[in-house]
Amino acid sequence: MGNRRLSILKRIYKLLDHVTPLNEDCGELCCARCCKGGDHDGMWLLPDEDLLLKDADFLTIHETLEGKYAICNGHCDRKLRPIACRIFPYFPMMFRTRAGTHSVKAMPDVRAMASCALFDADAPEIDPRFKQAVRRAGMLMLQDRCMRGWLDRNSSYLFDIAQMKALLEA
User: Fold this and answer.
1) How many structural domains is the chain composed of?
2) Which of 5, 66, 78, 117 satisfies CB 3.0 to 4.6 Å to 30 for a cystine?
3) CA nearest neighbour of 118 among 33, 7, 8, 5
4) What span, in angstroms and rounded, lies between the C-alpha atoms of 71 and 35?
């Protein structure tokens, strides 16, 4: 891994260190549903992010053909949470502009909509600073070829899920 990618990952961690979807612990709304799951429920890691998580003994990191993902034991050191945990329940969706450049918009992660209490009708409003931080994290990801590819693949995947969901609900 190049020093540039490590530097970008650290900047993303710092950007997301002190911003959360609510100004309070949103896990109290649902008993922290997003931190629970089985042995196959995990959060995808960005390219080489596992190198920053070597001291995260609460995580088990697995590797598949699609990439690496981390499974939490349910109790984390918030300073060592993967980026996917820090941006949940949003995702920095990548779009191509008409000019052929890339743009990023923080959007609800369609995978979270069924389980996250922040999408309930009576849920408090998500902090706009959180959404802006998720977008800025995505913009930083665009600076590295491998992270940009990861963001492109995952944005396409989430877009496909959203389209399928819309078709099934029609």
Assistant:
1) 1
2) 117
3) 33
4) 9
Distance of CA 8 to CAs 110, 150, 153, Å? Answer: 26, 14, 19
DSSP 162: H
Q: What DSSP state is assigned to residue 165?
A: H
Check residue 33 and give its pLDDT: 60
- Residue 21: its pLDDT value, please? 85
pLDDT at position 112: 82
- Does residue 37 belong to any structural domain of this protein? yes
For residue 16, the one-letter residue type is L
Asked whether residue 20 is domain-assigned, the answer is yes
The range of the structural domain enclosing residue 51 comes to 3-163
Residue with tokens 């020093």: 3
Question: Which pLDDT does position 147 carry in this prediction?
Answer: 96
Return the residue matching tokens 């408090």: 124
User: Quick one: tokens of 148?
Assistant: 């940009």
What H or E segment, with its residue span, contains residue 95? strand 90-96
The beta-carbon contacts of 94-100 under 8 Å, at least 24 apart in sequence, are: 94/138, 94/142, 94/148, 94/151, 94/152, 94/155, 95/155
Q: Which residues of the chain have pLDDT under 50?
A: none
Asked if residue 45 is part of any domain, the answer here is yes
